[in-house]
Amino acid sequence: VAFDRSKNRLGHGKGYYDNFLAKHKQLFNRYPAMVAISLTEQIQSEPVPVDEHDVKLDKILTCDEDIE
């Protein structure tokens, strides 16, 4: 798993997280609050690849910084 500074998430490519978020939005008409806890090394300086169904995180927390 990796993240970029635009709060995008790169997972394992199976779509489980995306499917969960889509179902949550269908049930509650909104996405849940999405906060990632990450190692500093997981934050990429370049953008991670995203698709149209990917949902940005609200915040990424590392031991060195909070990305909002």
UniProtKB/TrEMBL annotation:
It holds the Pfam family 5-FTHF_cyc-lig. GO terms for biological process: folic acid-containing compound biosynthetic process; tetrahydrofolate interconversion. It is an enzyme of class 6 (ligase). It catalyses: (6S)-5-formyl-5,6,7,8-tetrahydrofolate + ATP = (6R)-5,10-methenyltetrahydrofolate + ADP + phosphate. InterPro entries: FTHF_cligase, FTHF_cligase-like_sf, NagB/RpiA_transferase-like. Keywords: ATP-binding, Ligase, Nucleotide-binding. Its EC number is 6.3.3.2. GO terms for molecular function: 5-formyltetrahydrofolate cyclo-ligase activity; ATP binding. One of its GO terms (cellular component) is mitochondrion. Belongs to the 5-formyltetrahydrofolate cyclo-ligase family. This is 5-formyltetrahydrofolate cyclo-ligase. It comes from Conidiobolus coronatus (strain ATCC 28846 / CBS 209.66 / NRRL 28638).
